[in-house]
Amino acid sequence: MIVGRAEELAQLERLLGEVRAGRGGVLALHGEAGIGKTALLRAFGERCGSGVTLLRAGGVEAEAELAFSALSDLLAPVTAELAALPIPQAAALGAALAITPPQPGDRLAVCVATLGLLRAAGRKRPVLALVDDAQWLDAPSRECVLYAARRAAGAVGFVIAARDEREAAADSGYEDLPALRLGPLGYEHSLEVLRHAVPDHVSRVAHTLAQAAAGNPLALVELPATLSHEQRSGVAELDPPLVPGRRLRLAFDHRIGELSHRGRRALLVAAAYEGDDLVTIAAACAGASTSVNLLAQAEARGLARLSGERLAFGHPLIRGAVYQGAPAAERRFGAPPVSDRPRLHSAWLHDQVEPTLSRVGDLKPLLRIWFPLFDGDLGKRVSASRYPVCTENLIWHAEVKPDSIGDEGRPEQVVL
Ligand SMILES: Nc1ncnc2c1ncn2[C@@H]1O[C@H](COP(=O)(O)OP(=O)(O)OP(=O)(O)O)[C@@H](O)[C@H]1O
Ligand SMILES: [Mg+2]
């Protein structure tokens, strides 16, 4: 089941028409993690019908060092055509695919033989090679696939899907191929994906999830599982910032992990702050022994976009991934400047205040009376204008004088 993507499917079907007509063709399908590249390839494959030889392969991160692993998957259905190749090419490709005895590598011979094999198969029936996760192809396979794709003619076509990884994309080798960029799903289509993922969803919750997912189908599919039953049914509030599900979080974590220590801290400062004002973020970064300039690292990896005085996350869920992924000791650096306390994330409050409360020991029950924001649903009950100063004092000084407890059991003074 694929929702939307009519235009993209039409473009792929035009490519298929070209291949059937013997004019060849290639499309490089780009898009962020989880945007639906694999789903689109699958839907397209199903539409190709039986008159086409479909070849499929995909890069596998764990096999990126295993030479020719992807090429041997791709060519497996047509290796009978090796016999149609000149002997040196057949020997080179046969050895690379471990079909014939090993021989010293000749890169060009393997590339030329790959193209020759596809053309030979294409003379019998149109051939369409669908290559997924190209960012993880082992290098020799990638070289052959690109060589053949650039020369795809006759009844041979390629669709090569790769993740956008920003910096990596610049030297990926696919940028000279005709591109098909896969963007976010629209709002109505997002709701439709959610309806399939959670048939008994509550529309208010679906609206919030659709906004948080920003058209990324993987986020839509995974987010409901990150919520409690009460949250899914709309009884309990959602706790911002929302955190992506497992697969999407892995993809974000991978990019976050590439930042330097201080670069990550700068992004954490931005994530702990609900606003987008770069001047505020710069001040908070300075207070956290980092620099707003280091956000350039995050920008290069598509984690954030800086424009003028504003910062936007590459995807709304990156905020939650950055915050939740940071070790507790780092999270305290995510304190926004005092002027922005009313906009603290409840998750930040919770992380910072709870440990402080446990340190003040006996006073905890009393503080719970005094600070109703501490019990239960923080996000809903933070009446920020009343609490930030006390909260801040507790966090940074963790000291409440026992003799300042008044008659009603409320601390009258929080010591600075
Ligand atoms: N148009 C769509 N309609 C319905 N479900 C979709 C659509 N696109 C993607 N999905 C679903 O969203 C999830 C993520 O999609 P998919 O795996 O295709 O993303 P991807 O771009 O290939 O991600 P990655 O970069 O991790 O390979 C899958 O569960 C998929 O079935
Ligand atoms: Mg995929």
Strand order of the largest sheet: 2-3-4-1-5
Taking the alpha carbons of the first and last residues, their distance comes to 60 Å
How many helices does DSSP assign? Answer: 21
| Overall number of strands | 7
CATH superfamily of the largest domain: P-loop containing nucleotide triphosphate hydrolases
Task: Report the uncertain regions.
Answer: 336-346, 359-416
* Share of helical residues: 40-55%
CATH C-level name of the largest domain: Alpha Beta
Radius of gyration: 27 Å
Order of helices and strands: HEHEHHHEHEHEHHHHHHHHEEHHHHHH
Bound small molecules, deduplicated: adenosine-5'-triphosphate, magnesium ion
Overall pLDDT confidence? 81
- Number of separate structural domains: 4
CATH fold field value of the largest domain: Rossmann fold
Biggest beta sheet attributes: 5 strands, parallel
Question: What portion of the residues fall into strands of 2 or more residues?
Answer: 5-15%
| Architecture (CATH level 2) name of the largest domain | 3-Layer(aba) Sandwich
Question: Short summary of the structure?
Answer:
By secondary structure, the chain is an alpha/beta fold. The protein has helices spanning 6-20, 37-47, 69-75, 87-96, 107-122, 139-150, 167-170, 187-197, 203-213, 217-226, 229-232, 246-256, 261-271, 278-287, 295-300, 316-325, 328-331, 346-359, 364-370, 378-381, 388-397; strands at residues 23-31, 53-58, 127-132, 154-163, 179-181, 304-307, 310-313.
